[in-house]
Specification:
By secondary structure, the protein is of the alpha+beta class. The protein has 5 helices and 9 strands, in the order ααβββββββαααββ. Strand 5 and strand 6 form a beta hairpin.
Length: 236
């Protein structure tokens, strides 16, 4: 977070950094990151954002013909991008009755990342028992890897500065700066009401502003059009 704060501080001229404590600006930046992560479909689990962190995906291991040369070799394309190829870890999880057996696969022997295709190739052939009768084993692959952005993309810095400026102004709601707190207002322009009825309206307006004004720019980091589909063990 410190690096991102410095990145914004060096780029954003519209934000009055001297007016607020570092802790306040950190909360504002975190709110901005969480908001953008939700709008761009990066938040697929609680507290998940577009910043770099470990991701997990699980795919089925399909039944394959052991008599073919490529039987048992699967291709996996990561859903989260950008990702770090050197962080892949693959676990084979097999159901045995009511229990599960977990086997960590070995990099370079059981799986390897192909830079040309951008996919991870996984060989489960040595671990899967193909039987002609009886109950077949049900297996899945748990694939873990690091993905996301280590800092804010430079091409979107102006967008983030605009959003941070609005969020900072929205959260700066002391009574001396917030019109809604002026209970002596007799002109009927804005009336004070018990409870927080203004924040939901601001959030709705803010989301609409982002979606309409920055749709094309945010599309550069959005995952919303990337749909996970399991087809014979391949996530596309």
């Amino acid at each position: 977070m410190t690096h991102i704060l410095e990145q914004l501080k060096n780029f954003c001229d519209c934000v009055n950094w001297d007016k607020y404590d570092v802790s306040i600006m950190e909360r504002n930046v975190e709110e901005m990151i969480n908001l953008i992560s939700n709008l761009t479909c990066w938040a697929n689990s609680p507290c998940e954002t577009f910043l770099n962190s470990q991701r997990s995906e699980m795919i089925d291991v399909p039944k394959f013909d052991p008599c073919t040369c490529d039987g048992g070799i699967l291709e996996f394309e990561p859903f989260y991008k950008p990702f770090q190829p050197d962080t892949f870890k693959v676990l084979l999880i097999t159901e045995i009755g009511i229990n599960e057996e977990t086997i960590p696969l070995m990099e370079g022997i059981d799986y390897n990342f192909n830079e040309y295709s951008g996919k991870l190739k996984i060989n489960v052939r040595p671990y899967i028992k193909n039987v002609s009768c009886g109950c077949p084993e049900r297996s899945k692959l748990l694939i873990q890897y690091d993905a996301g952005y280590s800092e804010l993309p430079e091409c979107l810095l102006q967008l983030f500065c605009d959003l941070l400026h609005v969020i900072t102004a929205k959260n700066d709601c002391q009574c001396e700066t917030c019109t809604a707190c002026n209970v002596s207002n007799t002109e009927g322009i804005i009336e004070y009401k018990e409870g927080d009825e203004i924040s939901p309206m601001l959030n709705k307006w803010f989301n609409n502003l982002i979606e309409s004004g920055y749709e094309l720019q945010l599309g550069q980091i959005s995952l919303c059009d990337c749909v996970k589909q399991k087809i014979w063990g391949v996530v596309i």
